[in-house]
Predict the structure.
Amino acid sequence: MFVIAGVSGNTGSVVANQLLAAGRKVRVVVRDAAKGEPWAAKGAEVAVADLGDADALAAALAGAEGAWLLLPPNVGAADVPAYQEQLTDAIVTAVGRARPGHVVFLSSVGAHLPSGTGPILALHNAEPRLAAVAPDITFVRPGFFMENWGGSLGALAQGIFPSFYDLDRPIDHVATADIGRVAAEALLAGPKGHRVIELAGPVAQTPVEVGAVVSALVGKAIPVVPAPIEALVPTFVSFGLSASMAGLYEEMTRAMNAGKLVFEGAPVRGIVPVDQVLGRLLGR
Ligand SMILES: NC(=O)c1ccc[n+]([C@@H]2O[C@H](COP(=O)([O-])OP(=O)(O)OC[C@H]3O[C@@H](n4cnc5c(N)ncnc54)[C@H](OP(=O)(O)O)[C@@H]3O)[C@@H](O)[C@H]2O)c1
């Protein structure tokens, strides 16, 4: 039986669906029982647990041959690093207690870097702590989620595609469908000790190239407009993010624009193109 967290989110939903499609027994972890109902209808067991509650999570993980776990965002947290550390503490405690046969954990590009990566630093800190309690662990380190481009699509109403990222620097983005597929394949393949899978999409693309895809999808030329990095924090705070979260995103964006947020080695390449992800986001 496989335990899957974050099933109402981007990656967890794909992992759970793929395992169910493969005929495997799945227990989903939700923090709101109502979000488990569609999964129960598909034949999954449902465990209600907050990832910050070590006792509830350990109970949810009991008897698992494999588990998909993540450090979900809490973009409104007043102190995001403290929130991430509290969740990490609980996940490490629960995994150490329940000892699932194999943990596949959603990490990130840049998790090998010790500083300057914004929200990714928490994953750098979490990886060795998890590895210490789970000898059979696979860290999936994807690049920038293609779905993040959705944050710029709201400005289509003003006829522009804005970017805080350097317009001509290729970004190794990846669809969450590819991440979920690779995670499900890793769970089905079973434990192989301590592994890291760096994962990117079929091709790295610049914001200008992504803007061209948007233009093609909406059927008119949409200019890609640089947004000054100094505007990032106030913009994200105006969207409802805490100052702490916005500050971490600014640090991460600066690292991307400086070419510092890169894979450690050559990533595995996914198959889902950005056209497909943006087409879905745009309802095309
Ligand atoms: N965005 C990127 O470019 C990027 C790149 C590399 C890695 N990552 C990693 O990917 C993560 C996000 O993954 P995702 O996109 O699959 O997730 P997502 O779509 O943001 O969804 C988060 C999921 O986790 C659940 N969740 C949130 N807080 C929880 C808690 N305290 N206890 C239990 N469940 C909780 C949510 O459930 P509810 O429905 O209850 O909210 C939801 O199912 C980031 O946090 C980061 O670690 C992101």
